[in-house]
Design goal:
Elements: H1 28-60, E1 63-64, E2 72-73, H2 77-84, H3 87-119, H4 125-138, H5 142-152, H6 157-164, H7 179-189, H8 192-203, H9 207-215, H10 220-248, H11 252-258, H12 271-281, H13 285-309
Antiparallel strand pairs: 1-2
């Protein structure tokens, strides 16, 4: 008889078996489609209402377009005429820069001062916070701007009050040296939005920091410089960026105070007001489109400068010890 040899079966334990492709696992795209459905209104709006108009505006900036005839390609002529042969353009730039430099620090300073007063206020804080915030909701309307113009017009309330104390300025609206400050004061009056943000930031500062500073002999002013300002610097930076961007785009107050003409002597000819005049009054839509793109570039450059310089004065608590 021949000997029969048997072999032990080879081990089959090779770890967990992987499912075959396409089985036991739903494709990732099938899991993501609900997100695209919910995002689709925003995506459609961004394309139709933002990206497409921006592309059309960029094209029109290189054309001669009067809203009635087909656009005519002229290359860089709008930009060269604007920068080299339009003195009113540079006056609008100067007026806007003056407004930004004066209005933004005043508004933020006033908002921070009121926020610090409300921080230490016990009862009634919610009422005063709402009352101070209300002008931010109302101040951008045309009706409030017209009321403001009436207050500072010749024979208005402001001129009469100043006359009673011996300050004879006349109407600010008709004074080329003072008219821009009517709009500045209207902007400062709308300090409610940055004030609320400042108040939220102040409430996040630990009282232990003030107690430690007081133990070291620091007075209120020293505590403000050494504790409040550094700890609040991210909030200051946030408000600063928002207010600078908004100030470059101011339009409604300038239109209402000047009657849409930027007077007297172009003293209230803000950039956006001149853009509106060139586009919709003079029907030079190509020129206005070029102005809009230069404004976008200018805002981008200023914002980039603010972000670059913020590294030297903005303090973030989570960066300590890095």
């Amino acid at each position: 008889m021949s000997a029969l040899t048997t072999k032990a079966p080879a081990p089959t334990d090779q770890g967990p078996q992987q499912p075959a492709p396409g089985k036991g696992r739903r494709p990732t795209r099938e899991k993501q489609w609900p997100a695209y459905v919910f995002l689709s209104p925003w995506m459609i709006g961004a394309v139709v209402l933002t990206l497409v108009p921006m592309a059309v505006s960029l094209y029109l900036s290189f054309t001669d377009y009067n809203l009635f005839d087909p656009p005519k390609w002229i290359g860089l002529r709008n930009y060269t005429d604007m920068l080299t042969d339009d003195p009113r353009y540079w006056r609008s730039v100067g007026t806007t820069m003056l407004y930004v430099v004066v209005a933004v620090p005043l508004k933020l300073g006033f908002a921070l001062g009121v926020a610090m007063l409300l921080k230490n206020l016990g009862r009634g804080r919610a009422f005063y916070r709402s009352a101070f915030y209300a002008p931010s909701l109302l101040g951008a309307s045309m009706s409030i701007a017209l009321v403001w113009r009436a207050l500072f017009n010749d024979g208005g309330t402001v001129s009469r009050v100043l006359d009673t104390i011996g300050i004879h300025t006349g109407g600010w609206v008709g004074n080329a040296d003072l008219s821009v400050y009517v709009i500045v004061l209207l902007t400062v009056w709308q300090f409610g939005a940055p004030m609320v943000i400042f108040l939220a930031g102040l409430q996040q500062i630990s009282p232990d920091l003030y107690e430690a500073a007081a133990l070291d002999g620091a007075g209120r002013w020293r505590q403000f410089i050494s504790v409040t300002v550094p700890m609040l610097s991210p909030v200051v930076f946030f408000n600063l960026v928002l207010e600078v961007i908004n100030s470059f785009q101011v339009f409604t107050p300038a239109f209402a105070v000047s009657g849409g003409e930027g007077g007297p002597a172009d003293s209230t000819l803000f950039y956006t007001l001149y853009l509106y005049e060139r586009g919709f009054t003079a029907s030079h839509m190509g020129y206005a489109s070029a102005m809009a793109w230069l404004l976008l570039i200018a805002i981008g450059v200023v914002t980039l400068i603010l972000f670059r310089t913020s590294r030297s004065w903005v303090f973030y608590a989570d960066e300590e010890g890095r």
